[in-house]
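Running low. Invent one:
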Amino acid sequence: MCRPFIISVFVLCIAGLPGHLQAQIVRNPDLLVADAASPVPDGWRVDGQFERMTLDATVQAAGRPTLRIDYLASAPYAGLVQRLDAVALSGQRLVVQGRLARDNGAAAVGVWIRAFNAQRQSIAYANSYEQPLPADRSLREHALEFAVPPEAAFLLVGASVYGADGSAWFGGIDVRLQVQGASPNRP
């Protein structure tokens, strides 16, 4: 008879657990690739245009190769994106985190999130492009806070490179619930 109560307490308390114990919001946050012939990570899709996408063992995240995107400035941007259902996250505060690196050619690398309403109109947006990222090919944490608007139907979350010819490395992209206040979003 105690099992339903214990399960209920667990479900109610999960939002207060440390990040590594919370339920995953994105699929495959470590950007693991099932087939080396196709380096697009499972659960993610390519966004924008790039010259080349490969797994690169010279820049590692937790002992595994990172995803490298070689970018040409003639394209608007290149990166990865994943669509998330916003209904269950409505009104929640999220933290979007990415483990990113760049070389001296890539102008801007960052994580981003955008909310859309049921009519597929953008209603809120945030990115980390203004956060410093040294051009030394060393993975650094980028993070941003985002308040999911109550009218959001779905979210797009991702990481991109843009602005100049160069390379960017992606060691992971994750989304977690935030307990404290979030910054305002812009459409």
Notes: The beta strands are 45-48, 52-61, 64-71, 78-85, 93-102, 108-116, 122-127, 140-147, 154-162, 166-178. The chain has one domain: 19-178. Residues 1-21 have pLDDT under 50 and may be disordered.
